[in-house]
Amino acid sequence: MRKIILFFALCFFLACTKSEVNNTALKKNFKQPDAEYGINCWWWWLNGNVTKGAITKDLEAMKSKNFQGAMIFDAGGHNQRSNKDIPAGPLFGSEEWNKLFVFALDEAERLGLSIGFNIQSGWNLGGQSVTPEFAAKQLTYSEVKVSGNENIEQKLEQPKTQKDFYKDIVVLAFPIKEENKTAEVISNLDLKLGYHELGGSAPDTRFLLTNQSSFGRHLTQESTHVVKRDEIVNLTVNMDQQGNLSWKVPAGEWCIMRIGYTCTDAEVSTSSGDWQGNVLDYMSTKAFDFYWNDVVEPIFSAAGHHVGETLKYMETDSWECGGMNWTDNFIDDFKTYRGYELLNYLPVLGGYVIEDVNTSNAFLADFRKTIGDLVAYNHYARFAEYAHKYNMGVQPESAGPHAGPMDGIKNYGFSDIVMSEFWAPSPHRPKPENRFFLKQASSAAHIYGKKIVGAESFTTIGPHWNDELWHDQKSSFDHEICAGLNRVYLHTFTCSPQEMGLPGQEYFAGTHINPQVTWWDYSDAFFDYMSRVQSVIQDGDFVADVLYYYGDHVPNVFPFKYSDPAGCMPGFDYDVTDETIFLQLKTENGKIKVPGGVEYRVLVLPDHKVLSLAVLEKVQDLVENGATVIGPKPEKMISLQGGQEAQNKFTEIADKLWGETISDQGEKKYGQGTIAWGTGARNYLMSKDIAPDFDVLENSIVSDFDYIHYTIGANDVYFVSNQTDKKQKVNCNFRISGKQPELWDALSGEVRNAEAFSQNSGTTTVPLTLEPYQAIMVVFNQPISKNKQGTENSNFADYKVLQTLSGDWTVNFDPKLGAPASVNFPQLSDWTKSEDPGIKYYSGTAIYNKIFVFDAETQNNQSYFLELGSVKDVGIAEVSFNGEYKSIVWTAPFRVNITEELKKGENTLKIKVVNSWYNRVAGDELFPDKKQYTQTNIVLSHDFQGRPISDIPLESSGLLGPVVIKQAITEL
């Protein structure tokens, strides 16, 4: 017995030791992250206008801020939305451009930075060498009505042709019978045929599976005819190369359709100089092969030994090229993927109903799904295949948010880094559902087993330099960390040669972050915050209770986390899966497991009651082996695969799983598992006495707080975010017990035990006080007794005001930027309210100086703090107190610990406050006849759409206060 006790004691000791080592290394890296965990950036080579000097300047600046690397992105866009032109540099891929590219790789190698590049200029992959043969294609047709019982010799009109490219597919004839006339037309036909993308914010496209026309785009015809497939005649061999048809027409009225394909009108977008031209055919391996050999191989040849070493990743931007719906081998590909011939369904092009509306819609669903398959396997998979031959990775934005003809998560399966995007607030995308898209990307990473979830970060259209970091950027970053982001790619970091002046050349969109911004020298704290967060979560294993299946329809792009179709928020988290991974799911110990290793308690089906037969068969297998599946009884497969036999089998399996007659809500055992319906995942799990993984006990507003949970070895890491602009005091409940909670603050790198906590029924409650948009990591690591309770009531101090620093301030400005060198402010005020235009339009750093008397005696056992109140417009300040540098503050309430420096009597305070370039650029623009202090292509006298405005509203700037001395008060 004694040996057994010693054995278990030894096991416990070894487990604790391993846990401590793991936790110690994690803490060390958290305080000072390795560059591996640093941020990256879209390094904008704007209009090719870069120089060696600018390249070195930028890369050294990145290195100084601990960047992980940069993604070279040659593009135009400098003059969009009524901004001005800039000089053109070397054309992307030219010999001169390649020399600059190789120089950048040489410098990055010297500095130890990782480099990637966008494999074209701009986006919508294509360019000047993409001939119509390799360009994106679409179906086109012409038709003619003829009367029967006679021989005809008729020239069939060539269908509408674009870019002087046309090829025939088939000539079909079918009878037009009055008794087959119908008023039930196919709705949204142009969308169902893949001629267009469907919006830029991951719209729900399931309406395409039905005959609803609520999307606002539908065929204008009021009636059409039903066509029977067995009455369609293929006349292709009856037409010669000139389009002349010879045919003996049977009795009756007939329609003859000449169907072919031509180029879409899509062009590359936002590209530099002469890099213009056709968009590539995304469904053709031949087209991608051509592009690779013509464009990428010469760049690799120039890059030499850097390929696969310093040069590590390749990018293409998000789909914004509209629709495409045909390629050279589409007929054979359709047969391969869907298992039946498509030619006799092609009269749907003209709005004809084949057999009936349901059959036509099912064909159209199969048609779009095939397009999605070809985009995935012939483009993105091909891209990865070529990259891997060179020890390179790919990170295309291959899954929206523009809903092109794609299955987003399927495309992500071929990415080495899963890339998405998110936006900071701007007039162009003001709502959360239009800004945040990370959930789909992180889900793909989790289910496929990929480490890095990246995003084009802080994109905007409208603001220029005047973003308020703590309010706009940090809140957006934290929001998307909770959705699974783990690496930021700044959008944008524009390269600007010295001769372009200050603030220099800039892209028309994005948050401007580069060495030209006024606050670059004070930016370390902002970058360090993001790196610290990334240093923890990049090595984490995601924890979720719910896996949601989002269907097999195309287009299929998942929206933001808060759409929550599984009904698991608040308190439970989820991943989303596509059909590819769904068919690989396993059941282990009653949980659903994906190839990436994550396990979930329940699987949730979509609510539109449509599944493929393959997915329904997999549901049966999973439940039979112990899985719990929540969802309504599926009614049908919207596909013609397998014919009526498949539909009969579908109905049979659905009846077995759910029963032939079911109530609105219920639960049914099947095999070793359970089918449930009429409830959301959260309600179901809680009905089984499964506590939320995270719960804010005093708050029921889902959007006020968010979280994400990872495990790293023995550590359970919760990132908890206050998503409001108000200070919040809350009790947070975590589904963890038997571990000591720690508080990790990524703003400072501080790690400390939570002294206030309570354990009860397998959960731990930790009281948190979170400032506006503050986030904290709550880490559970060190084993403790499940009966142990905290010794304090609060983990955060309250603060009482001891003194407000009123009266005058001496403020020093930089006279080189038009302001007086020194000014006395009788009280704190907004610079833009000044009568002095040099102050009113000032941009840059100002130093606030004040000598004040503190009357009270400081106590040795007390802590004292300085709070700055409001700091505008960027919201960055550097504080020195009694000659001691304290810190840079950039988040509300701009609080600095001055316990060691504060003394009774006279104290000296120096605060450096920096605002953005916005006001100075505005002043120069408003008064072009006066001395100009700035030089840029950006024009502020237009709104975000490029329309002129009558005035340029200035941004409040400076230290606005109130500046106060506070004492920390510990709650008893």
Question: Your description of this structure?
Answer:
With 972 residues, the protein is α/β, with parallel strands linked by helices. It is globular. It is built from 17 helices and 52 strands. An 8-stranded parallel sheet has the order 16-14-3-2-1-19-18-17. Helix content is 23%, strand content 27%. Helix 6 crosses helix 7.
Question: Helices and strands: which structural class?
Answer: alpha/beta
Multimeric state: single chain
Biggest sheet strand line-up: 16-14-3-2-1-19-18-17
Overall shape: it is: globular
Give the % helix. Answer: 10-25%
Radius of gyration: 32 Å
The strand count comes to: 52
Low-confidence segments: 5-18, 215-219
Average pLDDT for all residues = 95
Distance between the terminal alpha carbons, to the nearest Å? 46 Å
Total of DSSP H or I helical runs spanning 4+ residues: 17
State the major sheet.
8 strands, parallel
Residues in β-strands, percent: 25-35%
Describe the structure using short key phrases.
972 residues, alpha/beta, 8-stranded parallel beta sheet, 6-stranded antiparallel beta sheet
Q: What would a concise description of this structure say?
A:
The chain is an alpha/beta fold. The strands form 13 sheets. The chain has an eight-stranded parallel β-sheet with strand order 16-14-3-2-1-19-18-17.
Question: Can you lay out the helices and strands and say which pair or pack?
Answer:
Layout: H1 2-31, E1 40-46, H2 52-64, E2 69-75, H3 95-111, E3 114-118, E4 126-127, E5 137-147, E6 150-155, E7 166-175, E8 181-182, H4 189-192, E9 224-227, E10 233-234, E11 244-249, E12 253-263, E13 278-279, H5 285-303, E14 311-315, H6 330-338, E15 353-354, H7 357-389, E16 393-394, H8 408-412, E17 418-423, H9 438-448, E18 453-459, H10 469-481, E19 487-494, E20 503-504, H11 524-537, E21 541-542, E22 546-549, E23 574-577, H12 579-582, E24 586-588, E25 591-593, E26 599-600, E27 602-604, H13 613-624, E28 628-630, H14 643-658, E29 666-670, E30 673-677, H15 681-687, E31 694-696, E32 705-712, E33 715-722, E34 728-734, E35 739-745, E36 750-753, E37 758-760, E38 763-770, E39 775-783, E40 798-804, E41 809-812, E42 822-825, H16 837-840, E43 845-854, E44 864-867, E45 870-872, E46 876-881, E47 884-889, E48 895-897, E49 905-914, H17 918-926, E50 935-936, E51 958-961, E52 964-969
